[in-house]
Amino acid sequence: xxxxxxxxxxxxxxxxxLFVEHADSPDLPAHVAQRAQAARMPIVIGVTQDKSGAAxxxxxxxxxxxxxxxxxxEA
Length: 75
Prior knowledge:
By secondary structure, this protein is mainly alpha-helical. The chain is 55% helix and 11% strand. It has helices spanning 4-10, 13-21, 30-39, 60-74; strands spanning 44-47, 54-57. A two-stranded antiparallel ribbon has the order 1-2. A hairpin with a 6-residue loop joins strand 1 (44-47) and strand 2. It is globular and about 40 Å long. The mean pLDDT is 90.
């Protein structure tokens, strides 16, 4: 996996903002998942609880990274 700090520094500001806004999302909206895939941000694709479709989320290490970035923005 690419170092998150290195990847983060190459992302456009709009993507960084979008990803931080969804740091705590248990299931990423489609537009966020699409941007994450395009940016090569790690995501986890699984099945929804009711097995009706796909669920996309941040891996725990990415979620924690994004939460730290969100906290830095608030400080």
